[in-house]
């Protein structure tokens, strides 16, 4: 009896012990699942914040271009990183009234010369900041946080004319950041903002809180709608300059000639009208160079379309900003950087003659001494001021010097001269232009868009829709692209290249020229050739 009782007691105890063991296993499993889910979420979040193209990138630019050769790549990277840290400390500011927003403070040295003197930023500065933070991700672990904060500030200050664009100036008045001096846009800020969103898409992807690619396309489309002349396809000043305005509507600004941006806009949007804008911009550059600055390559701050000839000419004094509106002055100091970057990245050489003349002229007039670069010139090369030493004028020439190895020593000297300047003593304009220029010169400027089969397919479809490609050529080109894609997906790059070569042969077939417009022919051959080069490198 005692034995049975003992056994009964033991049997009764086995059940709660088993239950407890099972409970522990379940709780442990649940904890592990919860921990795994938490870890997966953290990993996913970290993945979203991890840059895919972290600084430094060491991009290979167009064949024949150069970089400084008296310092190592590591030394150039370290210099750019130092300049960025100094730039961020001085200019990147958190919105005191909304901690989720950041802006670029531009008024340390009284840059706001017009009322209100309390101005804190302009869209130009904001665009610079968004491009810089996107490119410097990897060096700066908080780059995405800052970029997103800059994006939120941009969206909090829309233009009243086209809300996809940014109101050009803000100030702190009565403890509030408000838009001032007209709630409308400025083209340069909008272009850099759109470009920065394409960079952000490639840097962090667009599946997070902000769909960078979608937002970038919205801004690109808004620029086309409101800041491009709808029949002549030149870059206007802003969304407030209407096409039918026979004063401001006929103006353009060479420092806005961001041709590589335009190439990226075309590829991201698939809108072939950007080709017209690119062609028009290059035509303006070369017309003005031939007519007004054949001995210098200089372009003025502003250009106006002549009503009789239809060509552009330098603006009159006080057209918009100063008595120097028709000269190479503060606005156009950026031209050597803006135009050259397209040649470096895309290899488009349509402005090469103008830039080459510009380089040879500035070297000659300064005696190859960067310290002699003055603050402005007339288009014939006559200096406007005796003042020199401003990085806003010298840094962009560092970029243009990269075009040719005949400039090697000049480039080396420009690098040393510009990076030696103290950020804390410089003005906003000079420091921001130098920052962007040195990123390019160090080989760390990369394009957010590149030629792809998808892009070429979309391009062909657009041309077929518009009738620029028609007749029997339609099926020939479509089939060649399908074959190229089929072979490329299978990993057969040689066969894919052969199909792409057939694509070009069809376009060049003399018997079929009536079925394709000259512009469509040129653009399709350029892009097909770029793909072939990409596959065979």
Automatic annotation (TrEMBL):
Domain of life of the native organism: Bacteria
GO terms classed as biological process: carbohydrate metabolic process
Swiss-Prot/TrEMBL keywords: Glycosidase, Hydrolase
FIMAH domain: residues covered: 454-533
UniProt cross-references to Pfam families, sorted A to Z: FIMAH, Glyco_hydro_8
A GO term, aspect molecular function: hydrolase activity, hydrolyzing O-glycosyl compounds
Keyword Hydrolase belongs to the record: yes
Alphabetized InterPro entries for the sequence: 6-hairpin_glycosidase_sf, 6hp_glycosidase-like_sf, FIMAH_dom, Glyco_hydro_8
Similarity annotation: Belongs to the glycosyl hydrolase 8 (cellulase D) family.
Protein name as annotated: Beta-glucanase
Organism for this UniProt entry: Lederbergia citrea
